[in-house]
């Protein structure tokens, strides 16, 4: 059952990501991103991280995506114009993507038997649940990057509003 859930929601996340890239309208792209976030939440839930799945739904699929949609609506962005792209991006991107694909293929083909053979029985028998571990890492070890990221998102939204403001 877990393998079937992983395959279904993994494919749904990949399809949502591809749809996100191919959409012309920003609102449709944001809705595709919601599909990706919800699929990731189901994958977290199937791995036994219920708190992380709930946080994924509440924070990312709820708050952040509503914020993105409000910013897109505030900027009054319509359909994007299609361009042919940068020649430099094609010259660097295509060989770079091929190199990353070859590297990942080599790693997966040579070490394929080692992946997926982790024994989690020692970790699952401890009395500490994943909420306590996540909260310790997030609010003790990573508090400064967490707060800096929130300030960075706020500054980016304010910058987008200032840049989109119509001159009178």
What is the count of helical runs? 7
Structural class category: mainly alpha
Using the alpha-carbon principal axes, give the shape: globular
C-alpha Rg (nearest Å): 20 Å
Indicate the low-confidence ranges by residue numbers.
none
The number of E-state strands comes to 0
Helix content: over 70%
Mean pLDDT: 79
Largest β sheet strand count, sense and barrel closure:
none
Which terms summarize this structure?
0% strand
Quick take:
With 168 residues, the chain is an all-alpha fold. It has helices at residues 2-22, 26-46, 50-75, 87-110, 121-124, 130-141, 143-164.
Description:
The chain is mainly α and 168 residues long. Helix content is 77%, strand content 0%. It contains 7 helices and no strands. The N and C termini lie far apart (60 Å).
Secondary-structure map with pairings?
Blueprint: H1 2-22, H2 26-46, H3 50-75, H4 87-110, H5 121-124, H6 130-141, H7 143-164
